[in-house]
Amino acid sequence: MTSDKWKLHGLFRAVAIxxxxxxxxxxxxxxxxxxxxxxxxxxxxxxVNDEIISVxxxxxxxxxxxxxxxxxxxxxxxxxxLPQILRTLIDERLQLQEAEENGVNVTERELNQELTSLAxxxxxxxLQFAAVLGQQGINIDALRAQxxxxxxxxxxIGRRLVRQVEVGQEEIxxxxxxxxxxxxxxxxxxxxxxxxxxxxxxxxxxxQNANRLLNQIVGGANFASIAQNFSQSxxxxxxxxxxxxAPGQLPEELDEVLAGLDEGMVSQPVRTLTGFYxxxxxxxxxxxxxEGESTIDLVQVMERLPQxxxxxxxxxxxxxxxxxxxxxxxxEALQAFGEQRASATVAAANGIRIQELPSAVRNEIQSxxxxxxxxxxxxxxxxxxxxxxxRQDAAINLPTREQVEERLLxxxxxxxxxxxxxxxxxxxxxxxxx
Length: 434
Prior knowledge:
Blueprint: H1 3-10, H2 34-42, E1 44-48, E2 51-54, H3 55-69, H4 75-101, H5 108-121, H6 129-134, H7 140-161, H8 169-181, E3 186-196, H9 203-218, H10 223-230, E4 241-245, H11 252-259, E5 270-271, E6 275-286, E7 295-304, H12 310-325, H13 331-340, E8 345-353, H14 359-365, E9 377-378, E10 382-392, H15 401-427, E11 430-432
Antiparallel strand pairs: 1-2, 1-11, 3-4, 3-6, 5-6, 7-8, 7-10, 9-10
Helix pairs in contact: 1-7, 2-3, 3-4, 4-7, 4-9, 5-7, 8-15
């Protein structure tokens, strides 16, 4: 997959905040006064290599995150979100520095296009966008800074990292075979939040951050918005959307947790080798086969019921048909029986789709194997006996090879991007002052 294809499928697909919340939102965030803003600019929250993250930067991002996640930003919520907000800002600064060092830059046109698109998607005139944000105490430059880091990092991944990753045909074959083997098991639509661990010493702090985010979600915060603002996985751009996940598709520790989640459930933070995950299941389906698309060859013996004495005729036919089921097997024997019974009509058909059969017949023969004969079927005006001669099961609804290849590539690129960011953190000079 080329870097252009990578960008086409992922870049700019999601935004950092859902600005629909801005329309009609009660002003739970007061306007930042000029004095507070000036104070925030002068105060340093962190130093990343030779660049400063100000307290004002942190305050602005807190407000953006609160708007996105439908969180009331009181002192308690600010305290809970602050550690992860600061970590996110540090990571973004490292990503932007790495991108710039590798000749990756974000143009004003790209930023303006994203801001315009975001405003239009939320029915806000682009020229009024800054003013609408300002009404909530947010300077549009805070959103521009977030977009710049996201765009730069995605361009860097597309240009520098994707070319280092390959997905072989054998890997695709193995994954297709695995998906087929679990096709009759439930598939779950899964969203994730991932917080990476740089080293074992930070694990406790990261777990606390994960617990804080979980508490916000349990308290009513929007999962997708929390993922967009805090998750360190590439799925953050899509609100943490992993797509439909089959059993065995995730690492073992995540797979075990996912097995216990029903629709609408959110997991506790799950520790893995690389970090902590929070999983959310929104829907459940079975990939499997569409049995209605299966086709069968059949022989049908049918006896029409007279208008007078119908109940007696139905009982006689049902008794005769029930008896023959225990005496014969296979379509040839069933057809011979029908031809010998004067009151019966015999018909044979090949390649009949199961979903095209009357519901009473379909329900009776759907699970029959070739050579088996149904129970007598009462259709109201007839009694029917059906023998299944052959069947062709519908194809399993598997993803295409191209879809599997793309997902495997994204997994590998995502893992590589996490490693790069981890190394950047380890090598950087980071001085946190709040």
